[in-house]
Fold these 2 entries.
Entry 1:
Amino acid sequence: MSIVDLLVTIVVVTILVTIVLAVATYIAYKLRLAREPKPRESTRQGLSYFVRFDPPAMDADEVAMDAPNRMSGVEQNAP
Amino acid sequence: MNGRNPIWKSLIVVFATVGLTVGFVVVALIVGPDIQSLIVRAVVVMLVIFLAILFLRYFALIWFAYLGHAERNVLGMKELHELPPISIIVPAYNEGPVIERALTSLMKLEYPEYEVLVVDDGSTDDTLRIASEWEGQRGPGEFRVVTKPNGGKASALNAGIAMSKHPLVFCMDADSYVEPRTLLEAARHFVDPAVGAVAGNVKVENRGKLITKLQALEYIEGLNLARRAQGFVSAVNIVPGPVGLFRREALEEVGGYDTDTFAEDADLTLKMMSAGWRVEYEDQAIAWSEAPERWMDLAQQRYRWTRGILQAIRKRKALFLRPFPDFPLWVSTVQLGFEALVWPVMNVFAHLFFAIVALMFGAGELIVYWMILLTLLDLVAALVTVSMEEESLSLVPMALVYRFVFILFLDVVKMFATMEELFRLDMGWGKLERVAAT
C-alpha cells in the first residue's frame, strides 16, 4: 500500500467516522432531552420567558431609585 | 419553545437527511459509466469551488483582522478624559458552583467607579445564597443582589439594566470571569459617540482535554478572528454574552434585549446596528469561559447557538434584499447567515460527497491533495491568529484535526439544528452543567 493510498484511507475513514459519531451524538442529545423530567405545572405557570420587559424611559437617577418598586416580581435582598 | 418537543420529529429530520445521502449513493452506483465520469468531474469542480471559498474567507478575515491589529498597535487607542461609571449586570440561573469566581474577578477590576448588580433568575440551587453574601460589599464598586421568578437570561438582563444607573452597562455571564483591565480597555472605545457597544474577547479557560483545546483554538481562529475583522469596520455582529459593554442610551433606544430568540446577544447586536450604532471589538477586554467538556454538551451548546442565530436572522429576513443604505449591517447579517446556515450544510455534504466519490470512483489521490492544502491553510491561520492573540503555540497543532474532525462534527450538529429551525420544531434552553474547572 502506497503512502497516498494510506492517506486516502485515513482521510475517508476519518470523515465517515466523524460524521457517523456526530449524528449519533446528536441523536443521543435529543434522547437525553426527551428523557428530562417535565417541569411541574406550578413551575410552568411561573415562567415568563417570553414576556417582554421594556426598560422604562426615565433618567438614570430615577431608574436607580424607583426600579425595585416598578419591577413586578423582583425582590431586592436586604443587605 | 418549551423543550418538550417529541423526539420523533427530530429523528425524522435526521433519518431524512441520512436517507437522501444513501439514495445518492445508490443512484450513483446504478447509473452508467458516462454518468459516473460526470460525477467525478463534478467533484473536481466542487473541490476547486470549495477551496476557493474557504481561501477567500480566510484571506478576508485575516487581512481585516491584521489591519485592525495594526491600527490598534501603530496608531494606538484614543483615551477618554474621564472614565464614565459602569453598571455591571450578572444574570445567574443555577450558577452556584461558579458564581463566586465571577464575583471575585469583579472585585479586582481596575476601574475607578462601577456597581455590580447580580440578578438571580429564580435559581433552584444555592446561587442566590452565595451571591447574597456579596450584597452591599464595597471595593471599587458596590454589589447588589436581586432575585426574580425564572424568566430567561434576556429578561434577567433587562431587569438588571432597568435597575442599574450608570451610563455604560457591562453584561457578562455568571459562569465566566473577567481580567482586571477588561472594563478599562473596553470603555475607551466610547470616546466615539457613535459607538453603541464593544464586544470583548472570550477565551476558553479549561484546556485539559482535546475537546476543550479544540474549542480554545476555535475561539481564537474562528470566533475572535471574525470579530477582529468585523471590528475593523465597526460592524461586529455578535457582542458575546460573557463580555459586552454597552452605552445605556443605545440599549434604551432599541428596547433592551428581546426574549423571542435563543441568541439574545446576536439579536441585540443586530438591533443596535440597525439603529445606526457602531459595534466595535476590543481584544484586551478578556473574559474566561468554561467550555463544554463532553461532546454531547458541546452539541447541545452549538444547537442552541445555531437556532438562536437563525431566529435572530429570521426577524430580519427582509434585510437580505436591501444591501443599501446600511451596507455594513447587510454584510454582517449576510455573513452571520452564511456561517450559520449555508457553510455548515455545504461543508458536511462536500466532505461526505468527496469521501463517497473517493471510495466509489477512485478519486482518492485528488482528495488527499485537497485535504493537505486545507490542513496547511488551517495551520497557517492558526499560527497567525494564535500569534496575534499572544496565546500558547501549543494550540497550533490542533489545526491538524480542527477541520476534519472538530469543525465537521460541529457542522453536522449545526445542519440538524438548521433543519429543525426551518421546520420550526420546539426547543428548550438546555442548561449546561458547570463544574468550575480550575
Entry 2:
Amino acid sequence: MIPREHKLKIGVSGIRGEVGEFLTPSLACGFAQAFGTYVGAGRVVLGRDTRASGEMIQHAVCCGLLASGCEVVQVGILPTPTIQVYVGAAGSRGGIAITASHNPPEYNALKLFNRHGLFLNHYERSELIDLYHQSDFEHADNARIRRIVSDVETPKRLHFERVLHFVDVERIRKRRFRVALDGVNGAGSLLSIEFLRDRLGCDLHPIAVDPSKPFPREAEPRADTLGELSALVRRERCDVGFGQDPDGDRLAIADETGRVIDNDDVLALVVDSVLRRLSGDVVVNLTTSSAIDDVASAHGRRVYRTPVGEANVVERMRAVKAVIGGEGSNGGIIFPAVQYCRDSYTGMAFILDLMASDGEPFSAMAGRLPRYWRLSGKMDFEHGRLGMLMQNIEEALLAPVIDRSDGLKLIWPDGWIHVRASNTEPVLRMAVEAKNEARLRQLHDRLRQFWG
Amino acid sequence: MSAPNSLRISHVGLRGIVGSGLHASHVLDFASAFGTFLETPGAVVIGRDPRASGVMIREGVVAALLACGRDVVDLGVVSTPVIQHNIRRLEAAGGISIGASHNAAEWNALKFFGRNGTYLSTAEAGELLDIYHLRKFQFATYDRLGSLRRLEDGVDWYLDRLAEVYDFQALQGIRVLADCTNGTSSLLLRRIRERFGMDIHLINAAMEGVEFAHPPSTTAKMVALQLAPLVTLVGAGAGFLFDVDSDRVAIATEQGEAVSEEMVLPLLADHVLPRSEGKLVIANLSSTALLDEVAARHGGRVLRAPVGRQAAMDALASYRPEQISLAGEGTGAVMLPQFRFIYDGIASMLGIVAMMKERGRKLSEIIHSYPRYSMLKAEVPLESTLVPDLLMELRQAYPDGTANIADGLRIDWPGRWFHIRVSQTEPIVRVICEQKGEPPQKLFDDVLEHVRRMA
C-alpha cells in the first residue's frame, strides 16, 4: 500500500499521481498553464500513452496550454520518443507527453520537453516549479487564445526515418526474422507493428497490441513480467522477442530460448553495435553494469557515469558529445543521432541489425559479452535515518573507490555496490555487481546486515 | 480595456472576461462542481458559440466532466436551444452551454442545464454554488472515467423539433433578412434554407471568434445599424437580428423600421395566446405594459417576475406546463409553449413569420395595429449603500400609485409606470418609465431628479 503522501508528487520532476482523488484535472490544467507560461506563447506539442486517464488529462492539459496563449499541436497516442523527435523538429516551444511510463495504470504524469524535445534540465525544472507555485500564470484574452491543430502522421514518419537511417534495412529485411512482440497495449502498439513488419520485414508475432485495452501485465518490462512473451518466443520459435513499456521508451529483450536478457547486456550489445561504425564516447548511469566499460574499452572509448535519471544521462551526453548512452538498469537506450531520449525503436533496430550482420542466435551474441553477476532490490528505510545509514555502510565496507554523486557507490576491482534513495518511492534502491557468484554473495550479504 | 472584477459567479452560472476575470481554473472547478452535483445517470451534453476562448473552455469542461466519471457528448458550435433539445433527445443528465450570448467577444460564460434541458432552479443552482465553494469534488478512479464523443446531427434533430411545430411549407413566400452578428444563428438559418427552402438572406453570417461586426445586443439601435436599411434593399418581408447564441431576437419591418425589442414578446403573445391552452404569460417587471393589454384581449394574464433569467425560471417552474402560454423578457428572449424552458430566437422568428402568413398582412401593418406605448430608459451610477434610502424616498414621493417591491421599486398608475432597480453586474441603478401614448417625459425627469440628488 503506497502511503497517501506518495500518491501525488509535484516537484522538480514535474507532476505525477494517482488519478482521481490525487491527480485532478485542475492540477493538470494548472501545471500545463505554468508550462505554457514558462515556454511562452507558441506551438506546444501534446501527445499521450494509452492509459485510461489519458483522454481526461489531455483535455485538462490542453485547456491550460490554450489559456496561457499557446497553440496546441495534438499528436494523439504516440510513444514518448516519437513525440520527442517531433518536438525537436517541429519548431515548437516545447512538448508534453501524458504518461506515467512504467508506473501502474492508476497513475498518470506529465513528461515535459523543451523546444529541442529534451526533458527540461534541472534548472529549467526548478524555474517551472517556482512559477507553478507563484500561480502567476499568463492568462490569454479572447483575441490571443490560439487554436488546436493536429498532426498524427509526421511524428511517426520522422522517427522511423531517423532510426532506419542508421541500420542496414535491406540486410535486416532479407533475413525475415521471426520476431515476438509484447506491446503491453501501450502507445507503441500500432507503431511497432508497422515498424517491425512493414519497415523491417519481420515475420511478426505480436501480443498486447490493442491500444484501447488496459495493460495486460505489469507495465515495466522485466523478466518476471514478460512470461507471456517468453512463452510466445518458444511457441513460435522466434529469433527474438521485444517487450515495451506503455510509452515506448523502455525495451526488454528475450533471446530465442525465451530467456529475458539483462537490460545491462542489451545496452552493452547496442553500444557494441554503435561503436563498430561510429566513433565517440559513452555515457551511462552509476547503476549500469561494468560490462559497458569492457565493451567501450575494446573500441578504445571512454565511459562517463552520471546519477540515475534520464535527464542526467542526457545532460552529460550533450556535454561530452557522446555517441551512445543509456541506463542499463531500466532498459533505456539513448542514441542522440535520433534524439536525446530513451527509445525502444532505436534499440529494436540496432539489435536486429546486429543479428543480421553477425548471423548468430541472440543467445550466442549475448553469451560473448563479459560475464558479470548482478543483484538488485529495494529496502524500506526510516525517514531521517538515511544519512546515518549511508555513513555506516561507507565506514563498515571500506571500499577503495567511493562515488557519492548519487547516493553511495562503493567500488572494488572485482565488484561494486550502489545504494540510493528512490526519486519516486519511499525506498532505498540497491544494486550489487561482481565478477563471480561468490563475490556477489559476499558483497550482498555484507550490505544486507544493515537491515538486520 | 477590460474591466477589472469582470468575473461573476452566481445562480445563473459563471461569466467574465476571459484572461482578466474568467480563468481556466474557474472553468475546471465549476465544471467539476457540476459533475459532482449531478445525481441522475446519463451523459452531459455540451456546445459552444464561436468565440475563440470557447475551445479553451470546452477543453476544461470536458476534462472536469470526464474526471467526474461523466460521458460527454460534444455538439460543437451550436446555439443554446440546440443543446437543450439534445439533452432531451439523449435523456442526458444535464448540459453546459459555453457562450456569452449578448456580451462582447472578449467575454465568455457557462450556463448549466439539468435533465430535460431545463435551467437549474434557484435551489439547485444554490447547491451547485455550495459545491463549487467547498471545492470537494467527487472524482472517479482511473477505471471509471467518462469518455467523449462528438455528435454531428444535433442541429438537424433540433430543426426536426421546430418542424413539428411550424409548417415550413406554409412559411414559403416571405423573404427574410437575418443579421447573425457572426454567431450561431447563421448555421441554423443556412440549414433551414437548405432543408426547408425558406427564402432567407443573411448578413454578418461568417461565424467569428474574435471580432463581431457589431456589438451582439438585440436592441432597436443595433437593428437600425445594418439590418433595417438593408431590409427594403433586398425586398425582405421582415428582418431579424440575433445575438451570438441565438436565444434573443429583435426585428425590423419591411419598411426598414427598427422595431423596439420590447415588441417581440407582445407580438408573439398575440399570436400564441389564442391557440394555447395555458393563459399565463411570464414577463419581468421592466417589460412593456402593452403585453398586459394584448394578453387581456385573449383572456390571458401577465405574471411579472423580477428581472433576470433565474427569476423567470423559478416562476415558470411553479406552474404546470399546461397553465403557461409563453414566457420572455423585453430583450427579445422568448419561450414558446411547445418548447418549455427554451428561450429560442429562431423559434421566435418562425412564430412571427407564421403570424404574418396567417394574417396575410405586412409586418409594419401588424406592428402599427397596436396602441402606441412609449418607454424611456436611463442608467445612473449610485453606490449600493444609498439604494435603500432612494427606494424609500421614491415610494413616499409617489403615494398614489400601486407599488411593487419584488425587484427594486415599481409604481403603477393606469396607463403609466416606472421601475427602478439595481443592476446585478455594475454599481448603477436602471430607471425605466413607460406610458401609453406620448413619452412620460415629466415622470421620467422627476424620478431621475430624485436619483441624481441622492448620487
